[in-house]
Every structure is written in structure tokens, then in C-alpha cells.
């Protein structure tokens, strides 16, 4: 796998019709600087709105993957993204003058050919690989979908599909070398669908840009000569269309014996581009689809963002520690004698955090609370839980360098047992909800596994500059 980032050498364009919308558009690929990433630009809209290609901007998965920022949308981006990541391009501007890229032949090959025509430029910055060092799983019991990422110092994908249809049957495929296999073995694989699905979508006025040349159609119900004749009229199919002995509706041969599952791998490659970084992992997937791919990509992207966060604040890697005291001081504004968390030992952005406070006799508050019988004030236990919560909240919302956490309310605070010198306070906080700059959290504190305090918080993120102006 490549070590340095790369972009394309010159602009290239491709025009055509969108699969679902049937609208005409031109897509233009342009070089981009280091660390720019993959971004779509709607040049037909006022202000040329930019849409980053990450899961944060996915708004619809009904017939493909749709990205949007505000009212600016781009439908069916997966084949474009598969071409880009399949060619290991990190930085690129994708200008598009319509709502959906051209469908081409239903594969990623038209985009691949244009990008190869553009050529590549190796850039100065190292690739920001996300190295998967732990098992990441996605399971959908209802639809029988399983996807797992396993540690590997490479990028491999293995896929199995089984739609319990005689024409399709069980198929599997694997890509073990991106550089050697992508262009020849997977980029040409066309999208596929079942005939009953095509008829339903056609009745609804969808797949306006679809035809027999840009999709593999699987016949999933009986179709005699009269039925085929009616179908040709209904879908405006060429006269030479027939049902192959394998059960496909086509007048072209399959490009691969297992072309449908190869296209599933192509779709997954494009959807996983929405992680926003190249990855090193072994991906195993059973019966994946766009919705499952994107949900899985969200899990991987959260892991990527967390690793970036840890790298930003934790300069020395320590076993069992996410943030040590020095890292915490880079995140929180609190200082002695009011910094009440020593380390963070677990963190899941947007979900939960676990912090530790070692309580010693040297705490300044023990001088007055209480002489001869030192007990940590309950209000400071609440404050310690709030500080642990703040570390998660700041980094889940925005850059903590320019913002503060202000708590608006404390509810259902309960103190179960005194905390005394020598105790180690382990505090767990879970994000219950967030909206805009407001959030709510449920927190609990334990000593030796015994609950000593609990509370619920509501708070807000406050901009430091605005706060200075207010004061």
C-alpha cells in the first residue's frame, strides 16, 4: 500500500445520465492539495456548496448512498468513491453540475478510466492510515447481515451474498491486493437488481436512467414469451433481450461468473470511503448493503476520530490510559486545586467515558471537611463527574481549544457512601442526548466497585470568545 498521499495530475470530465433521477450532468475531477480529502462541489448551485465525502453527511440510503449539506445533495456516490479509493487517491475535488453522477455502464469503470487518464501526483504528506487494532463488528439480526473488521497490516475485503434465489444462489469473492486486483477484477462489475424490483421501480417512475446495458437483471419470477414481450414494451427493452439459461435478463454476457457479488464488494469499497481515511484491516461481510455499509463505516469513523483525538492530546502512549493528567490539562481549563480527574481510562466518543480520581489526604478540602474525620464533599464528587463528562462532551462536539462546558442543571443527585482518603474514585458518564450545543449526561461514581454517588447533568458548550465579550 502507498505511503504518501496522492491526487490526480490534471482535470478530467465525464458526462451522462443519472441512474435514478435520469438527469444529465457532467462530473469533473480536479487535483486537490495535501490533506484536502474527497469533496463534492455542486457547481450548478449558488455559492458552489461543498459536500465532504464522509458518513457525517449521509442523508439517504434508499436506492444508493446520498450525501448532502443543507439543500445541496449528490445521489448515488458509491461508484465514484469506489473508483477514487480503489486507485488510492486521497485528495480530490469532484465538481458536479447536477444531482447525480452519470451511471455509465453501471460499474465504476468509466470513472476509473477517466482518473487513469488524468494520471497521479505523489504528494509530500504521509497517508493518514487508520490501522484497525481491535475487532469491530456490525450485526443486523433481522436481515442476516454481519460485517467485521479484523486487524491486518493491509486492506482486504471478503464478501458473501445469498438471496435464496436460484439465478443468483450463493456467491462469494475477495479482494486481497487493491493495487493489482481493483481495476481488472472489480471496477468493471455492474450493479444488479431483481426483475420484480425493476418493475416496481419503473411503475413508481424511478430508475429513469436505468437500462439493460447498465445493470445485471436477475429474473426472480416466471417469465414466458408473452410475459417477456409485455416486459419489453413496458421497460422499452431492445428486441434481442432474452432470459439466459443462468436466469439473467440480458443481451450482453456477464463480465464475471460472480459479477453480482463483485459489485457488492465495489459498493462496499465506495461506502467505506466515507470513513474519511484509508484503512488497514481485513473486512469480512455477509449479505451487506448500503445501509449496513454506512452503519459500519460510522463505527469505523468514530474509532478514527477517537484515535486522532488521543494522538492530539496524549503524547506518550500508556497501557490502560487514554488520557493522563498532562493530556487532561490540554483539554480542560481547570487547574489546582480544582482539577478533580487524574486520568481517563476508557472513551467512546458520543457515548461514554470513564475517569479516575485518586483521593489522598493531601487534598486541600480535607483541612475543613472535616477536621479529624476527612470526607470528600459531595459537591466535589459531582464536580469530578462533571469534569470527566466534559472531556467527552467537548471532544464529541467541537474543538475544545476554543470552547468551555457550562452545566445548566444537576438532577437526581444521590450520595450512597462517604469517600475518604485512600479511595480511588472511578467515574462513568454516558451521553444521553445532544442537540446543537446542548447535552444531557448520566454519571455515576464507584469505589472498589461500590456505587458511592450518581447524578444527571444538563449543559451547554460555550464559545470562549463570546464569553469574554459577555464579561
UniProtKB/TrEMBL annotation:
One Pfam family per UniProt: LpxC
So where's the catalytic machinery, residue-wise?
A: 290, 369
Listed GO CC annotations: cytoplasm; membrane
Q: Residues that bind Zn(2+), according to the entry?
A: 79, 263, 267
According to UniProt, this protein's pathway is: Glycolipid biosynthesis; lipid IV(A) biosynthesis; lipid IV(A) from (3R)-3-hydroxytetradecanoyl-[acyl-carrier-protein] and UDP-N-acetyl-alpha-D-glucosamine: step 2/6
> Which UniProt keywords are given for this protein, alphabetically ordered?
Cytoplasm, Hydrolase, Lipid A biosynthesis, Lipid biosynthesis, Lipid metabolism, Lyase, Metal-binding, Zinc
Location in or out of the cell: Cytoplasm
- List cofactor names only: Zn(2+)
Catalytically driven reaction(s) = a (3R)-hydroxyacyl-[ACP] = a (2E)-enoyl-[ACP] + H2O; a UDP-3-O-[(3R)-3-hydroxyacyl]-N-acetyl-alpha-D-glucosamine + H2O = a UDP-3-O-[(3R)-3-hydroxyacyl]-alpha-D-glucosamine + acetate
- What are the EC numbers? 4.2.1.59, 3.5.1.108
| Primary site of residence | cytoplasm
Name the GO terms of the biological process aspect.
fatty acid biosynthetic process; lipid A biosynthetic process
Q: Which Gene3D superfamilies match?
A: Hotdog Thioesterase, lpxc deacetylase, domain 1, lpxc deacetylase, domain 2
* UniProt record similarity statement: Belongs to the LpxC family. Belongs to the thioester dehydratase family. FabZ subfamily.
What the protein does comes down to: Catalyzes the hydrolysis of UDP-3-O-myristoyl-N-acetylglucosamine to form UDP-3-O-myristoylglucosamine and acetate, the committed step in lipid A biosynthesis. Involved in unsaturated fatty acids biosynthesis. Catalyzes the dehydration of short chain beta-hydroxyacyl-ACPs and long chain saturated and unsaturated beta-hydroxyacyl-ACPs.
Q: Which HAMAP family match?
A: FabZ, LpxC
- Write the protein's name: Multifunctional fusion protein
Tell me what organism the protein belongs to.
Melioribacter roseus (strain DSM 23840 / JCM 17771 / VKM B-2668 / P3M-2)
**Encoded by which gene?**
fabZ
Amino acid at each position: 500500500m502507498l505511503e504518501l498521499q496522492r491526487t490526480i495530475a490534471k482535470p478530467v470530465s465525464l458526462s451522462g445520465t443519472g441512474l435514478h433521477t435520469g438527469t444529465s450532468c457532467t462530473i469533473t475531477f480536479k487535483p486537490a492539495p495535501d490533506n484536502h480529502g474527497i469533496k463534492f462541489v455542486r457547481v450548478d448551485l449558488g455559492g458552489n456548496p461543498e459536500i465532504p465525502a464522509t458518513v457525517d453527511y449521509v442523508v439517504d440510503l434508499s436506492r444508493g448512498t446520498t450525501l448532502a449539506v443543507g439543500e445541496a445533495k449528490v445521489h448515488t456516490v458509491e461508484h465514484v468513491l469506489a473508483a477514487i479509493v480503489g486507485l488510492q487517491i486521497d485528495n480530490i475535488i469532484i465538481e458536479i453540475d447536477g444531482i447525480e453522477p452519470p451511471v455509465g455502464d453501471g460499474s465504476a469503470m468509466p470513472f476509473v478510466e477517466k482518473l487513469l487518464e488524468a494520471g497521479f501526483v505523489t504528494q509530500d504528506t504521509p497517508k493518514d492510515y487508520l490501522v484497525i487494532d481491535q475487532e469491530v463488528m456490525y450485526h443486523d439480526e433481522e436481515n442476516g447481515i454481519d460485517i467485521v473488521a479484523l486487524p491486518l497490516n493491509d486492506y482486504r475485503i471478503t464478501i458473501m451474498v445469498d438471496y435464496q434465489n436460484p439465478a443468483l444462489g450463493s456467491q462469494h469473492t475477495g479482494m486481497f491486493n487493491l493495487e493489482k486486483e481493483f481495476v481488472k477484477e472489480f471496477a468493471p462489475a455492474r450493479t444488479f437488481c431483481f426483475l420484480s424490483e425493476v418493475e416496481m421501480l419503473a411503475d413508481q417512475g424511478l430508475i429513469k436512467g436505468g437500462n439493460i446495458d447498465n445493470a445485471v437483471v436477475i429474473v426472480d419470477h416466471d417469465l414466458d414469451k408473452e410475459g417477456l414481450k409485455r416486459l419489453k414494451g413496458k421497460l422499452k427493452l431492445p428486441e434481442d433481450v432474452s432470459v439466459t439459461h443462468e436466469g439473467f435478463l440480458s443481451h450482453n454476457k456477464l463480465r464475471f461468473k460472480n459479477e453480482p457479488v463483485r459489485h457488492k464488494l465495489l459498493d462496499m469499497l465506495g461506502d467505506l470511503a466515507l470513513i474519511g481515511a484509508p484503512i488497514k484491516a481485513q473486512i469480512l461481510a455477509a449479505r451487506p448493503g448500503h445501509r449496513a455499509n454506512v452503519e459500519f463505516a460510522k463505527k469505523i469513523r468514530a474509532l478514527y476520530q477517537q484515535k486522532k483525538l488521543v494522538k492530539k492530546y496524549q503524547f506518550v502512549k500508556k497501557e490502560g490510559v487514554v488520557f493522563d493528567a498532562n493530556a487532561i490539562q490540554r483539554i480542560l481549563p481547570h487547574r489546582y486545586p480544582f482539577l478533580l480527574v487524574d486520568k481517563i481510562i476508557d472513551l467512546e466518543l458520543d457515548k461514554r467515558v470513564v475517569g479516575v480520581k485518586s483521593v489522598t489526604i493531601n487534598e486541600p478540602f480535607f483541612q475543613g471537611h472535616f477536621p479529624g474525620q476527612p470526607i470528600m464533599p459531595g459537591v466535589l464528587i459531582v464536580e469530578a463527574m462533571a469534569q470527566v463528562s466534559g472531556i467527552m462532551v467537548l471532544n464529541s462536539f467541537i474543538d475544545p481549544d476554543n470552547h468551555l462546558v457550562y452545566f445548566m442543571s444537576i438532577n437526581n443527585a444521590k450520595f450512597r457512601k462517604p469517600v475518604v482518603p485512600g479511595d480511588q474514585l472511578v467515574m462513568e458518564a454516558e451521553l444521553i442526548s445532544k442537540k446543537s450545543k446542548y447535552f444531557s449526561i448520566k454519571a455515576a461514581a464507584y469505589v472498589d466497585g461500590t456505587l458511592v454517588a450518581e447524578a444527571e447533568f444538563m449543559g451547554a458548550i460555550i464559545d470562549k470568545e463570546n464569553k469574554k465579550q459577555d464579561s
